Amino acid sequence: MTAEQSRLRLLDYLAHMVEAAGLVSAYVEGMDKNEFEKDTKTQQAVILNILVIGEAATKICTEYPEFVAAHPEVPWKQMRGMRNRMAHGYFEIDLDIVWDTVRKSLPALRAQLLDISR
């Protein structure tokens, strides 16, 4: 892979993460926690996109460790960890944690990712 192809692949991973975070925000727009807890379709859509974010973060950590080291403000390890917990413990997902992630962490993460992908 050429350096340019590698750079484009990194940007593609970042774009997937930004898109997934944006979709999550759109899915829960206007919802409160109680509504989210009752809406399994939205829960599944949100969880899938959190998995996408975590998978892309895993790829970036593995393939671009120098990029990860250059951006320690981004919670790379936490994204990988959340992805692993959700993927391997699907029947034990804590919706309180998912909701807090959606409301508190993802908007800031999306802003960080937009900033570093420029």
Structural class comes to mainly alpha
What general form does the structure show?
elongated
What is the H-and-E element order?
A: HHHHHH
Low-pLDDT regions = none
Distance between the amino and carboxyl termini: 22 Å
The helix content is over 70%
For the secondary structure, the number of strands is 0
Please tell me how large the radius of gyration is.
15 Å
Number of domains: 1
Mean pLDDT: 96
Estimate what percentage of residues fall within beta strands: under 5%
Largest sheet: none
Number of helices: 6
Overview of the molecule:
By secondary structure, this protein is mainly α. The protein contains 6 helices and no strands. The chain has helices at residues 3-28, 33-38, 40-63, 65-70, 76-88, 95-116. It is elongated and about 50 Å long. The model has no long low-confidence stretch (mean pLDDT 96).
